[in-house]
Amino acid sequence: MATETPLALQTPDDKDALRRALGTFATGVTIVTARAGDGTPAGFTANSFTSVSLDPPLLLVCLAHTAASYGIFRAAESFAVNVLETGQEDTAKRFASRGVDKFGPTPWEAGALGAPLIAGSLAVFDCAMHSRVEAGDHDILMGRVLGFSIHEGAALLYHQGIFKSLG
């Protein structure tokens, strides 16, 4: 039996090293959208998305307290998760930026409760807000899926700070 060398664990005090370690996990890329009280659409790029339950149908996303749209999502009663397809990298970058017109060049339609559903997405989940949980410097937004769509294609991936695709 071979002896194994113990791992040399780092403490999470080095935020840059921790971010690099977390970035080793490849994820899909989503745009999470909602509407402000006055109807103005808001959205942000996120890779912190996961299914929670099929019965009831629940999913979650994480939103930084520093996000420009934080106040809108904090008050929102609904949101949508738009899973991006390979080829939507420019859209992902636009929604990750501050101070740009995110929705002007982005075709979308309103979901059942008003959240923007982005055209050309690989999958779309239209959700009612189920719960919000404050977790450190983020909020966990849990949504109850009211409707969804799925299309053929390849998912846009994010790994070690770079957009990638399968194949």
From TrEMBL:
Domain annotation Flavin reductase like: ranges: 22-165
Alphabetical list of InterPro entries matching this protein: Flavin_Rdtase-like_dom, NADH-dep_flavin_reductase, Split_barrel_FMN-bd
Keyword terms of this UniProt record: Oxidoreductase
Keyword hit for Metal-binding: no
PANTHER family: FLAVIN REDUCTASE (PTHR30466), FMN REDUCTASE (NADH) RUTF (PTHR30466:SF1)
Name assigned to this protein: Flavin reductase like domain-containing protein
Originating species: Paralimibaculum aggregatum
